[in-house]
Amino acid sequence: MGNGRLTAREIARLAGVSVATVSRVSNGTGQVSEETRRRVLRAIEEHGYRPHHLGQALAARRHGAVGLVFPGLSGPYFSELIQGFESEAVNSRTSVHILCTHLRADSDAEVIEMAHRVDGLAVLGGTLSDETLEELAGMLPVVVLAGGGPPGVPAVRVENTDSTAALTRHLLADHALRRLDFVGNPSGSPDVSERWAGFREAHRQLGLPLPRAPIRVGLQQPDGVFAAEQLLRRSIRPQGIVCANDETALGVLVGASGLGLRVPEDLVITGFDDTPMAALVTPALTTVRQPVRELAAQTARLLMQVATGDVDRSGPTLVLPTDLVVRRSCGCAAPTTPGSTPTGRRAETGLRHSR
């Protein structure tokens, strides 16, 4: 190295540990075995590593700001996340800096540069590599939002697998559908990966053949229209399409209508999120309701607790529950009682019916 110093990542490689462990040893925080501590300290002493100056200034909250890192900002999901996160930060008199990476190859440098201007970072799951998250965690508090990070990095996410399995079982068992397809890219998002796992698990639980590969598209309405074109022009059409989110499902709904198909008579469509539009379209969308604002607020709360030292940097992973909301798009009749309100239990144990 030109300046004779190694980075935390290089020290971690030499000591055979994670970057987060190097951070805990160098800052004297968290639990590390004595043998591991000696190994890290030996590498630090031999190579002259010094912790990043931010790591020593966190207790003072010197910036009064936290960062929020997203791949992009389109659609109601991100709007809800921002409102939930910012409301919690404002209550703590903390400002929020937002960075959209658009999943560019050079975005890591921009995030690391932001880390010099904030007291902590919340990063949407799947936006950065685990390697980059570990490097950032060696510099300042990091919490993963809506996903999981590498060991030692706390996270806040919603339950995805069981709720998608419950939705899929509802279609397979209660509606006797057999040809179901999944729309979404499991490799593009931790949430989508877990929903795809739940979709497959429902087939296994009922002793049915595993479904074919998903239609790997993005999470916006035009992606759903494209997926509908791909699926519904096949000689053997699916009976139902389970979409990774509501925006995609609404796109599939538009695509199906353009091809002259009726929902749910000719095709069942479901989503995930329960965005406001899900209850307003015709037919209303069967979906899984996740507490998006609470998800973001909990992330902001945990991040600030870590930044002030109230919670250890290698803190917990919080999992928020979700609810299955059954509406007309899966073929269920809507409630007929005037003024009826949604009732039910969590998705793991039952269904929630809604208009």
Structure description:
This protein is an alpha/beta fold and 355 residues long. The protein has 3 domains: 8-51, Orthogonal Bundle (434 Repressor (Amino-terminal Domain)); 63-157 and 293-320, Response regulator (Rossmann fold, 3-Layer(aba) Sandwich); 161-271 and 323-353, Response regulator (Rossmann fold). The chain is 39% helix and 14% strand. The protein contains 12 helices and 13 strands. It has a 6-stranded parallel β-sheet with strand order 2-1-3-4-5-10, with helices on both faces. Helix 11 (246-258) links the parallel strand 7 (240-243) and strand 8 (268-270). The longest helix has 16 residues, at 76-91. Mean pLDDT is 86; it is low at 52-60 and 335-355.
Helix content: 25-40%
The H-and-E topology, N to C, reads as: HHHHEHEHEHEEHEHHEHEEHEEEE
The major beta sheet can be summarized as: 6 strands, parallel
CATH 4th-level superfamily of the largest domain? Response regulator
Total of helices = 12
CATH architecture of the largest domain: 3-Layer(aba) Sandwich
C-alpha end-to-end distance:
64 Å
Number of strands: 13
Region (Disordered): 333-355
GO molecular function: DNA-binding transcription factor activity; transcription cis-regulatory region binding
Protein name: Transcriptional regulator, LacI family
Domain HTH lacI-type: 6-60
Chain-wise SSE layout:
Layout: H1 8-15, H2 19-27, H3 34-47, H4 53-57, E1 65-70, H5 76-91, E2 95-100, H6 107-114, E3 121-124, H7 130-137, E4 142-145, E5 155-158, H8 161-174, E6 180-183, H9 190-205, H10 221-232, E7 240-243, H11 246-258, E8 268-270, E9 287-289, H12 292-307, E10 317-320, E11 323-326, E12 343-344, E13 352-353
Parallel strand pairs: 1-2, 1-3, 3-4, 4-5, 5-10, 6-7, 7-8, 11-13
Antiparallel strand pairs: 9-11, 12-13
Helix pairs in contact: 1-2, 1-3, 2-3, 5-12, 8-9, 10-11
